[in-house]
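ingest -> validate -> predict -> emit
validate: passed (alphabet ok, no gaps, 461 aa)
predict: started
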Amino acid sequence: MDEYDDQFTSVQWERDAPPVSPPHPAQQPQSQSQPQPSTSEPRPPAPDVLLDTNHFLNVRVVRPTIELEGTKEQYVAYEVVAKTNLPVYPTTTTSARRRFQDFRFLRHHLAKDFPACVVPPLPDKHRMEYLTGDRFSQEFIERRRLDLERFVQRVARHPTLQRSKLLIAFLSSTEWNIEMHQHIAHPPHPDPPSLIDNISDTLLNAFARVRKPDERFSEVREGIDRFEDGLGGVERLVGRVKARVSDLSGDYDDQATSVQNLGYLESGITEPLNRFAHAQLEFGALLKQQAIDTLEPALDHLHSLLAYAQAHRAVLKLRDQKQLDFEELSAYLSSITLERDRLAALQAGSVSSSGLGLGSYIRDRVDHLRGTDDDRHRRERLRKMDVKIKELQEAVEGAADTSNAFSDEVLREHAIFNMAKRVEMRELLGGIADGHIEMYRKAIEQYDRAIPNLERIRVDL
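emit:
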């Protein structure tokens, strides 16, 4: 048994995340002085960059209660209790009551305020219990409490999100409604308008692909694929175990009935066999309870991890969009610069209008037919194009800096995600193992009480 200790062969663990470095300047321009997004391997981070061992933030979601019960406005409120030694929090212990829509507000605005962070997802609000009118049942409320607790624990584990002003207000504020309105009115990171917002939608195609994929993020994406495949395998395995446990529970119930019936056929053995049958019934009940207490929460945790991985994949897509913005702006700058150079050459008389290309040639002929002063019109076009090129150069440099900084942050987020994934996989698999151990411990106690009764049975041959 020792050779299998601590080996989870059903899960495909990915390699350590690519090391992370602080943002670095763009590479030297190649053609037309355009910066390039960096694809060089970043330096490894210091060990305490991702995990601050000197500070902690522990959050629990406890004591759900139904507020305004019996009315159409009734809802479930949860007590969110936190303990921390982070200096940004007003006290070391906080407690506040929040409803589900408050958690939704927190998640939505954390994702908006920190677009490069992998903000964990919330449990889906639209579930079958809402369609059947059973969303206030104790079972549903408990499962939602566990999901919400898992969400806030993931946020509290994140080194950036745990220090956000919105989370601090969510955990400690007694005027949460006011905090929400102030946050909406004065967001911490308002997005300034940029040149890229004024470019035609035909230029920035949402379905376009990155022209120069970064190998670092290809490996990250492959790692997420392997992790999702591994989770899918574990999910199928746990589902089969749950179905088999249900079948076994019914088999033990049937066997207990048969043993009881056997006891009535022979005098003197009825009581021992009844005790043994009772032990089998209790073992069948233990199997049913194990499916409820261990296997169902494990399946919920697996679904939550899959949703967490999808949130990470969404951040990767956003990073690709940042790189695509840079590439499209660079291509646009190249076309404008080329057209400007051709127009300048025509103005200098080094080429004829036929050498400008089809579009410029047609525009030149149309202006000629209109009687426009060719030289004056070309000088005006050159001036406007010079201004446009200058704006585009600044936009390209800004897009390159944004792409590089966003890429570095996404790599850091991947390392944080890997750390959280390892913690949660230990918790998940450890919970399954502990549930089985506890079940078999109780079963041993039951059979230890029943077996002596069987041993006292004497049968004359």
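The chain is about 60% helix and 5% strand.
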